[in-house]
């Protein structure tokens, strides 16, 4: 009996404990359910408010009031951070105003957060359009590819994709030509630099040669001035009555020899002109002596006249 009584007490405590636990669990579930319901209602309300702001923004866009539309879209994003319509339309409003940088940022945000393929397609399509506006054709090709991956049936995206490919090809060829031109200019500049270095070297060598020649000319001028001073000193001594040196300057003798006509050398068996001259002079002298003797003999037989004839 006692054992049975203990068991009933123990089980009684257990039943009470289980009942208490079940009550606590029910209360907790009800509380969480209430909180979850409140959160769901808050999310639903936020989404509803965001959609209303997007609608208002679209109305402003239709009236080309881009500033007011931007404010409405920002309100929508503030109510619901993941509101893709608000983000996408905000990027579109920037695009229509010509603010491509801010528009590209918002559209990339929309493409990242979007879960619907149609929303991704629209975001990537407009990203490609902005990149084409900025002449970034290679990046635009990738954007249009992503748009076609989400909607391969869009002919407008496919057409823009073809334009972007042509543009990217032309830019690549232009860049290659620019690189070739830069390489040619680099080679030309190097050639000009080498030529200038060679010219500078030649000019330096010429300057050195000119300085050397100038130095030699100066030394020669000094030497000539010294010789001239020496000649003037000798001339002054001669004018003062000092005896001149009878010796001729060897240079002057050589000069006289050069100035005198050279006598032809007599050939063997012939008399030289000097010998002929000497012979003629001897004959003239002999003839003169004979004539003088004849004249003396004539005077001996003649009468000498006086000063007056009486």
Describe this structure in words.
The termini are far apart. The N terminus and C terminus are likely disordered. The chain is rod-shaped. With 310 residues, the protein is an all-alpha fold. α5 packs antiparallel against α6.
Question: Could you outline the blueprint of secondary structure elements for this entry?
Answer:
Blueprint: H1 2-62, H2 66-79, H3 84-97, H4 100-113, H5 117-133, H6 137-150, H7 155-239, H8 250-259, H9 273-300
Number of DSSP-assigned strands: 0
- What is the mean pLDDT? 75
Strand content: under 5%
Shape: rod-shaped
Low-confidence stretches: 1-18, 244-252, 303-310
Give me the oligomer status.
Answer: single chain
Q: Percentage of helical residues?
A: over 70%
Biggest beta-sheet profile: none
First-to-last CA distance: 244 Å
Backbone CA Rg: 67 Å
**H/E series, N to C?**
HHHHHHHHH
Question: Helical segment tally?
Answer: 9
Instruction: Provide the structure class.
Output: mainly alpha
Would you kindly provide a brief summary of this structure?
This protein has helices at 2-62, 66-79, 84-97, 100-113, 117-133, 137-150, 155-239, 250-259, 273-300. It has 310 residues and is mostly helical. Residues 1-18, 244-252 and 303-310 have low confidence and may be disordered.
Record keyword descriptors for this entry:
mainly alpha; disordered C terminus; 310 residues
């Amino acid at each position: 009996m006692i054992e049975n009584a203990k068991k009933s007490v123990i089980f009684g405590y257990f039943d009470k404990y289980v009942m208490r636990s079940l009550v606590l669990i029910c209360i907790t579930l009800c509380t969480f359910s209430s909180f979850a319901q409140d959160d769901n209602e808050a999310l639903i309300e936020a989404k509803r408010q965001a959609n209303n702001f997007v609608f208002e923004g679209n109305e402003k866009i239709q009236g080309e009031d881009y500033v007011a539309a931007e404010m409405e879209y920002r309100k929508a994003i503030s109510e619901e951070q993941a509101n893709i319509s608000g983000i996408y339309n905000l990027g579109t409003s920037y695009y229509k105003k010509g603010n491509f940088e801010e528009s590209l940022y918002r559209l990339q945000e929309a493409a990242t957060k979007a879960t619907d393929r149609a929303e991704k397609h629209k975001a990537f399509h407009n990203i490609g359009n902005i990149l084409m506006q900025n002449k970034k054709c290679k990046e635009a090709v990738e954007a249009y590819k992503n748009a076609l991956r989400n909607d391969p049936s869009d002919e407008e995206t496919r057409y823009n994709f073809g334009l972007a490919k042509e543009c990217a090809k032309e830019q690549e060829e232009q860049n290659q030509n620019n690189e070739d031109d830069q390489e040619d200019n680099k080679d030309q500049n190097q050639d000009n630099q080498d030529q200038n270095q060679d010219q500078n070297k030649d000019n330096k060598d010429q300057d050195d040669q000119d300085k050397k020649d100038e130095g030699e000319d100066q030394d020669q001028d000094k030497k000539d001035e010294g010789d001239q001073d020496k000649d003037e000193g000798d001339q002054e001594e001669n004018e003062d009555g000092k005896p001149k040196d009878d010796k001729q300057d060897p240079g002057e003798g050589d000069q006289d020899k050069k100035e005198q006509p050279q006598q032809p050398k007599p050939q063997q068996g012939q008399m030289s002109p000097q010998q002929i001259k000497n012979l003629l002079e001897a004959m003239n002298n002999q003839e003169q002596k004979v004539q003088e003797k004849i004249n003396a003999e004539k005077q001996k037989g003649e009468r000498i006249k006086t000063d007056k004839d009486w």
